[in-house]
Amino acid sequence: MRADARKNRDHLLAVAGAAISEQGVDVSLRDIARRADVGLATLLRHFSTREALLDALLHTSFGELTAKADALATDDSPGDALVSWLRECVGWTTEYRGAVVLMAAAIADPDSALHASCVTLRAAGARLLVRAQAAGLARTDIDGDDLFALVEALAWLGDQRSLAPRADHLFDVVASAILTGTANSDAEGGTRS
């Protein structure tokens, strides 16, 4: 990509990120183009759909969350690593209001521009979950799909202005429900309900 095209693309992403943070993922593409001082056709030349724009915007963050999961996979405490990643993932998803709704739809739609990124993110969390389960620190009746759904649910809470003050408390409730609190109950085949 030419340097000027890269500069224009980066500018569009910065403007889109600010607009989505303020107004949510349903912000008008025309409004994003206007804010960026370009025509809608220019925006669409770089990003043919709303999902393509969001994927480009979120790609770096998805990569960072995946790298964070990989780094945490060597943490001494698999349970703490899982909760740390989960907290960071939920916190990040609330940065762009409404993104979690698109992520939820994209995970089930292989044709979605966001699908591959969401699958990679889900797999990163699943690896941490499996590691905590193997150590007997996480319940064994959930999998990566469940964990991704919990990220979506907790992020949705953060998107709701009336529920946002309860989001941290509810995160702690969910995290404590995932973890068994012992290093032997799941290892012996039991789970905590």
Provide an overview of this structure.
By secondary structure, this protein is mainly α. It is 68% helix and 0% strand. It has nine helices and no strands. α5 crosses α8. The protein is elongated, with a radius of gyration of 19 Å.
Produce a short descriptive summary.
The chain has helices spanning about 5-25, 30-35, 40-45, 50-70, 80-95, 100-105, 115-135, 145-160, 165-180.
The radius of gyration over CA amounts to 19 Å
User: Which percent bin holds the helix content?
Assistant: 55-70%
Element order: H for helix, E for strand: HHHHHHHHH
Counting helices, strands and paired strands, the structural category is mainly alpha
Count, helices = 9
Termini separation comes to: 52 Å
Quick check: average pLDDT? Answer: 87
Largest sheet: none
Number of DSSP-assigned strands: 0
Protein traits:
elongated, single chain, 9 helices, mainly alpha, 193 residues
